[in-house]
Amino acid sequence: MTEHTFNLIDNGWIHVQSGNDLQSLRQIFTRLELRRLSGNPVEKIAILRLLLAITHAAVSLPNRKAWLQLSLQDLSDIVCSYLDSWHDRFFLHGEQPFMQFRQLDQGKTSPFSVAQLNVATGNKVVLNSWNMPTPIDPPGKVMALLRQSFFACSGKKFDNDIALSPGHAKKPSGTYGTLTGFCGYLHTYLLGETLLDTVKNNLLTDDDLKQLPFAGLGRPFWEDMPDGELSKRAQGYKSSYQGQLLPMDKFVFLKEDGMVMTEGITYDTYKTGLVDPAITMRQDGKDIKTVWAKTDKKPWRELTALLAFLKLDAINKSPHFLSMGLEKLAYSQGIVMRFWTGGMQLSSNAGEQYISGMDDYVESEFHIPISVSTQGGFDFFQQMITELERLAKITYSSVVNYYDILNTEQKVANALVAASKFWEAMEPRAQLILDLAFSCSADKQPKIEEEMNVWRKTVLRVYNQSCAKDSARQMTAWVKASPKFSAQTKKGK
């Protein structure tokens, strides 16, 4: 098979868990037993959003009733019939290459490494013995295409001045992708028992879309590619839900030895009007804030923000995949709402985005019961997280006080390490904390108190590990600075 006969519908390119073989789009939609996508969080997000865009193009969902009546077999049959109808638009190369602009053929070619974060760092492509760029196969090119089209990092990774819209000058350096954000959005999606369950759970009905500021569902790009960033088709695509699922903020053309890229359709940021059902945003006074992917604050510590829509007086319902999905799941036979949250933390300097130092991918899965999710469970969970944060501050301030008494310069550094150890010890307990908060059992409160006692013991253990008491002077400092749980210490961080 040559690259010019590679078709995303027929040929394998998607990694799934518990399987060595790459799956084609047709296999994804016909193998009902497939359970999860594989790969890093950004790859999972990009593929899931493509699957959602395809399903939305094929399946009509006017309301919740239609969603409830849609079986996975019906979804499979309808989507496969649709893919057959548009088969010629899913070739990686050819007259109408998938998600590409042949007008860029004469542009400057950049290596495929620009879409690989382990290689493309800073202003230059960094090469060493383990990441020398090698020719990538068609499946790798598909992932590079998807990632670079709407999940790119900003920076001078291309300098094409090809304007698809006459008279429209290009920016000298690339902006960050709409789904990337300044330092990496945290994305959240519902999960199902199988991969097609996951797709169905994240489908929005026409009634759902009416609650969001989109100009309807719209048509996917493969049915009608825009011919420029300012064209009528481009602006219509941008304002539609299809245009948000797969925002083409970069225009790309694949060649044998690399890719040609230029700025694409300009989208809003979360501060200027971006609405995305996977991204969590909240109003903070006059400002709009979002939730970022952070390696030092793992996703479970952001659950109060991700689940804030459960509050009875909540106005903001983001992330909409969770809030709108839960509304539909409540009428199904489901017992629990499972969800995945993940993304990548990025650094930024002088307009250049890259993974460096503590940056990395983050991802987690959680579940809460559907039947009681809006019956006070969130309030209990919020109270428990507030107590955890208080104990983390006590850990920090106790270690600061200990080293302050000993007049040690490294008191802040040691305290930060101690607080980090406390949070690391709590991370495996995240789902247990959710289970306790959303429980309906009669002994709920005693069990919560028992769990909090475990937390206090952890504070004492971390304090003992961080503060020696070998000498008489150390023992005096250790006693004076020992954690006090009755009230928050004054020197909290």
Give a verbal description of the structure.
With 493 residues, the protein is an alpha+beta fold. The chain is 37% helix and 11% strand. A three-stranded antiparallel β-sheet has the order 3-8-11, sandwiched between helices. Strands 1-2 form a two-stranded antiparallel sheet. The protein has a two-stranded antiparallel ribbon with strand order 4-5. Strand 4 (250-254) and strand 5 (259-263) form a beta hairpin. Helix 12 (377-405) runs antiparallel to helix 13 and helix 12 packs parallel to helix 15 (444-466). The longest helix has 29 residues, at 377-405. It is globular and about 80 Å long. The N and C termini lie far apart (60 Å). The model is unreliable at 120-134 and 488-493 (pLDDT under 50).
Task: Tell me the layout of helices and strands.
Blueprint: H1 25-30, H2 41-58, H3 64-69, H4 72-85, E1 120-121, E2 124-125, H5 138-150, E3 186-191, H6 195-201, H7 206-209, H8 232-239, H9 241-245, E4 250-254, E5 259-263, E6 281-284, E7 287-290, H10 303-306, H11 320-329, E8 336-344, E9 347-349, E10 352-354, E11 361-369, H12 377-405, H13 411-426, H14 430-437, H15 444-466, H16 472-481
Antiparallel strand pairs: 1-2, 3-8, 4-5, 6-7, 8-11, 9-10
Helix pairs in contact: 2-4, 12-13, 12-14, 12-15, 12-16, 13-15
